[in-house]
Amino acid sequence: MASSNPGRKSTIYDIAKTTGSSTSTVSMVLNGTWARYRIKEETANRILECARELGYNVNMKARGLRLSRSGLAGMILPHYRNRFFAGLAQTFEDQARSRGLCPIVVGTQRDPEVEVSVTETLLSQRVELLFIAGLRNPTPLNELCTAAGIRSINLDLPGDGAPSVVTDNRKGSATITELLIEKLLARGHDADELVLLGGVANEYATEMRIAGFRDALEARHITAAEDAVECCGYNAAAAKRALTVRYEKLGRLPFGLLMNSITALEGMVQFMATLPHDAWKSVVVGCFDWDPFAAYLPFDVTMLRQDVQGIIAEAFALVENGDPTDRSLVMVPTGFGKMYEEEEQTKEFDR
Amino acid sequence: MASSNPGRKSTIYDIAKTTGSSTSTVSMVLNGTWARYRIKEETANRILECARELGYNVNMKARGLRLSRSGLAGMILPHYRNRFFAGLAQTFEDQARSRGLCPIVVGTQRDPEVEVSVTETLLSQRVELLFIAGLRNPTPLNELCTAAGIRSINLDLPGDGAPSVVTDNRKGSATITELLIEKLLARGHDADELVLLGGVANEYATEMRIAGFRDALEARHITAAEDAVECCGYNAAAAKRALTVRYEKLGRLPFGLLMNSITALEGMVQFMATLPHDAWKSVVVGCFDWDPFAAYLPFDVTMLRQDVQGIIAEAFALVENGDPTDRSLVMVPTGFGKMYEEEEQTKEFDR
DNA sequence: CTGTTAGCGCCTTCAC
DNA sequence: GTGAAGGCGCTAACAG
Predict the structure, then answer these.
(1) Cβ contact (<8 Å) for A349 and B136?
(2) Helix residue ranges per DSSP H, chain B
(3) Would you call B65 and A70 a contact, using CB atoms and an 8 Å cutoff?
(4) What was the pLDDT predicted at A1?
(5) What share of chain A is helix, strand, coil (3-state, %, to 5)?
(6) 10 Å Cβ neighbour count for A80?
(7) Could you read off the pLDDT of A264-309 as tens digits, one per residue?
(8) A16, A49, A184, A236 — which has fewest CB within 10 A?
């Protein structure tokens, strides 16, 4: 780490001077295009060596300015607090890096002002693409991007200002509903014991999940109970409250529960913790999204897992296909349990 | 959103031409320094208006080149899969934004090659500072930064290549150990039932926690059992295995358990799920780090929470104080339960 | 009050 | 094979 000029980053001029060559030669060598220009290998090596010694490091600001390519890929999401968004972020980073881009992901806390200002900031940094995840209404942000000539893709929730990649919630919901019905029947309960709890009415994901839920019931010619679907909101407290009410009315829990989010499941667990132990075994549970703790709780729970790798891959494909008028909606299927081996490979010092 | 020149981002030249003024006037107006230069308010308004219509957006690459200030703040961390790192990322983003910087955080999956290449990338993007979180040996990265004249701060785990901000693990450990002992005694058990499980011997955080554990025992003149500390590793499977062995040897669980990480706690929960229900109530548990699911499991668990806001604030203070030879080690105290009101304020559509 | 100009560091063409 | 020069978009003197 022998920086001859500590504190000041070195430039190609420094290298040119120390090696006694010209800036263009240095530039070519550093870009790997030197072979095409028949530059002496010896010269090239000398320059490379010198660059290392000086701790040289391209100035992407200058290169980007010249080439009008920043090398930055942006993504905004609400937060990192669940495995879905955390996984999206991680996968995005990996795939961006593998394309030679520097990932830059920002959490907005669902604050509309932050969303706009972050988008503007990323645009000023001249990101080459922007993925917008989990926004109910991404259109204003899409428009900002379009105006700046930057491609944006909506993830998780669709919008009409850009192409969107979302989980196939309806199909997934039907699949898990089907599975829960099987389990209920196997336990000798009625299928119409199943309750879909959580989420917000008229919100895209919730509506799709409700539709899938009904699909599965109808496929078996089962009439859903009046109150089989309850959109009590996504958060834990609301789900806990809703369950409490049902418990008091019914004198017990429903035998089958499909929770509309990991946070709703959190609320359910909080409620279960207040009940006698055998309550845990009395109920068959399903959940959209996955969490490592929840997966091992002492009750029968099945978690629907989103395919973050698939989502990100589709999104990159969309930006790479290049049609700026594209507004297609790509559906990515879900799965159960672990989806990627490596994802769970915790390193020795992971905690 | 009327971009007169869709697809091409507009520049100050475009604005200068359309408003019939000069680039410097435009520049000053856009930077808000126009009052100082006594530019007519009317002109200013015309320019501002035009900028809006053109969907103008500063090119930070060019501005950065000129001012040699990128407006970027970097942070690297192993992953986002637990609440500590997720919170660090979120807090970093908030605080960076409030300082007018654009946060750019990258997860490295603890891959040393990725760590180096990400650092180099961030350095080429000319980030103005770099926070390095959760690395066992951050020194090589610190050196890269120093060579480039960029200030770096180590977070969570210390290093000798830069100042470090870490949680006061020893004090925290002593506090929670003390609390668990109280609980054990209240239940009529011996204090030497307490076991510290998980982590890696000779690793900084683990060693500090062991020291704190012993501090608390010694303060009460209790001799720790031979096998009171078991560094079985951080991951869930290892913790589960270690507990299984103890269970078989003892015929029951130890009455008190202090788990060295959220992942180790995960392993414990997995093991508990295999036991009869009353096992959950038989044990008093503590854990370093916090998780929303774990916090509401049906057993007596106390979670030590790290002060992510404090850590990030100290880190920014360190870079702002400016002494590049500073190698100080700042300790940030821990707390129990919720530490910030707002942190748990889930928005309506959060899931 | 406003316009002109000289770079910031880099890449690319075009001479030599 | 190598050097000189122009310009990416912006800012800060410095002239008018």
Answers:
(1) yes
(2) 12-19, 23-31, 41-54, 60-67, 83-98, 112-124, 139-148, 169-186, 204-219, 236-250, 262-272, 278-281, 292-295, 308-321
(3) no
(4) 36
(5) 50, 15, 35
(6) 29
(7) 999 999 999 899 888 889 999 999 999 988 888 888 999 999 999 9
(8) A49
Q: Which of B11, B320, B333 is nearest to B173 (CA)?
A: B333
Residue B344 pLDDT > 70, yes or no? Answer: no
What's the CA–C1' distance between B115 and D5, in Å?
39
Q: How far is the CA of B61 from the C1' of D10 (A)?
A: 9
Burial track B250-265 (b if 16+ CB lie within 10 A, e otherwise): eeebbbbbbbbbbbbb
- The Å distance, CA of A44 to C1' of D2, is 13
Given a cut of 90, whether residue A261 has pLDDT beyond it is yes
| Per-residue pLDDT at B302 exceeds 90 | yes
Q: How far apart are CA A81 and CA A200, in angstroms?
A: 19
* pLDDT for the residue numbered B8: 64
Two structure tokens written together for B187: 């239940």
Kindly state the average pLDDT of the residues B93-119: 95
Over range A235-259, report the average pLDDT: 96
Cβ-defined contact of A269 to B149 (cutoff 8 Å): no
Taking CA atoms, what residue in B is nearest to A279? B277
User: Which pLDDT belongs to residue B236?
Assistant: 94
CB B131 within 8 Å of CB B75? yes
Which is more confidently placed, A34 or B79?
Answer: B79
Diameter of chain A measured on Cα atoms: 87
Structure tokens belonging to residue A166: 């979302």
Query: ∠A265-B298-B281 over CA atoms, to 5°?
Result: 160
Q: Please give, rounded to a whole number of angstroms, the shortest distance from the CA of A308 to a CA of chain B.
A: 14
From the CA of B321 to the C1' of D15: give the distance in Å.
Answer: 39
Q: What tokens appear for B220 in the block?
A: 């009460």
Predicted confidence band of residue B278 (pLDDT cuts 50, 70, 90): confident
Task: Check residue B9 and give its pLDDT.
Answer: 76
Look at A8 and B149 and tell me if their CB atoms are within 8 Å.
yes
Higher pLDDT, A7 or B313: B313
> Are B110 and A347 within 8 A, CB to CB?
yes
Chain position carrying tokens 């001012």: B67
Q: Which of B57, B90, B273 sits opposite A79 (nearest CB)?
A: B90
Q: Which CA-bearing residue is nearest the C1' of D6?
A: A66
Distance from CA of B340 to the nearest CA of A (A): 15
CB distance A132 to A138 below 8 Å: yes
In the block, residue with structure tokens 């480039």: B148
Between CA A309 and CA B150 the distance in angstroms is: 34
Residue with CA nearest to C1's C1' atom: B39
Q: What is the pLDDT of residue B3?
A: 39
Rounded to whole angstroms, how far apart are CA atoms A313 and B218?
55
Q: What percent of chain B has pLDDT over 90?
A: 71
* Distance in angstroms (rounded) separating the CA atoms of residues B12 and B185: 73
d(CA B30, CA B47): 8
C-beta pairs of A251-254 under 8 Å, 24+ apart in sequence? A252/A282, A253/A279, A253/A282, A253/A283, A254/A193, A254/A194, A254/A195, A254/A283
pLDDT at site A91 = 97
B33-42, B114-123, B295-304 — most confident range: B114-123
The predicted model scores a pTM of: 0.93
End-to-end CA distance of chain A: 32
**Minimum distance, in Å, between the CA of residue B95 and any CA atom of chain A:** 12
Give the neighbor-by-neighbor strand order of the sheet with A164-167. Answer: A329-332, A164-167, A151-155, A129-133, A72-77, A102-107, B102-107, B72-77, B129-133, B151-155, B164-167, B329-332
